[in-house]
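Standup notes, structure subgroup. Blocker cleared on the SN-glycerol-3-phosphate input:
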Amino acid sequence: MAVPLIIINFKTYREATGENAVKLARMCESAAKKAGDKVKIAVAVQATDIFGVAAAVDTAMVEVFAQHIDANGQGKSTGFVTAEAVREAGATGTLINHAEHKITDIAKRIATAKAASLATVVCAADVAEAKAIAGMNPAPDYIAIEPPELIGGKVSVSKAKPEVVSDSVAAVKSAGSSIKVLCGAGVNSGEDVKKALELGTEGILVASAVVLARNPEETLLELIDGTG
Ligand code: G3P
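Run returned:
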C-alpha cells in the first residue's frame, strides 16, 4: 500500500482562518516532521489562505490543498476561484464536491484541476456516489467517502458505518481502478484511523478533531500513530 494520506480540512473555522491558518499549518508541519515518511500530510485551507500558508510551511512536508475550485478559466471570471490561481498561490491539490460545497459538474472540475496539475480529491456521500465518481472521465486521484450526517460528530465513519467504507472501496476498485479511497467524518482517534485503513482506505480526511483540539499537533500525532 502507498503511504497513507491524512488531509486536515481547515473548513472556515475561525481557529483555522488567516493568521490562525498559518499557525495551525505550522503545527501540522511539526507533526509531519516527527512522523517522517510513514505518512503524507496535506492541509485543505480557504482560498484566501493558500498563498500565506504555502509560503509559511515546507510544502514537501505539508502539501497545501484548496477546498474547492470553480470550473471557470482565467480572465473574465470575476469572483471565481480558478484552478490556475490556487496552483499559482501554492496549492498542489484540491477537494471537489465536499458535502458542504456540493457541485453538479464534477467531471468538468476534475478536468480543470488536472489541467492545472492539481491532485484531485472528490468527496462522495455514499457508495452510489462513490461508484458514479469512479466511472467519470477523467478519473480523480482520490475519492473520499464522507457520510454527511457523521461530519463534525464524535463517532467515526470507520466505526459507525464500516460497511459504507468497505463497500465504497469495493465499488471503486471493482473496475480495476487505481483511484485511492479515503474516508472522513467524525475521525477522532488513532483507533479510528487504524480501522479506516483496515477497511481498505489509503488515508483519511479530518477537520474538527484537529482544528478545534486544545493541542492540534498532539491530536494529529495521535491520528498519525493509527497508521501503524
Ligand atoms: O472534510 C473532512 C470533514 O468533512 C470531516 O469533518 O469534523 O467530522 O472531521 P470532521
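Discussed briefly. The first strand starts at residue 5 and ends at 9.
Next: hand off to the docking folks.
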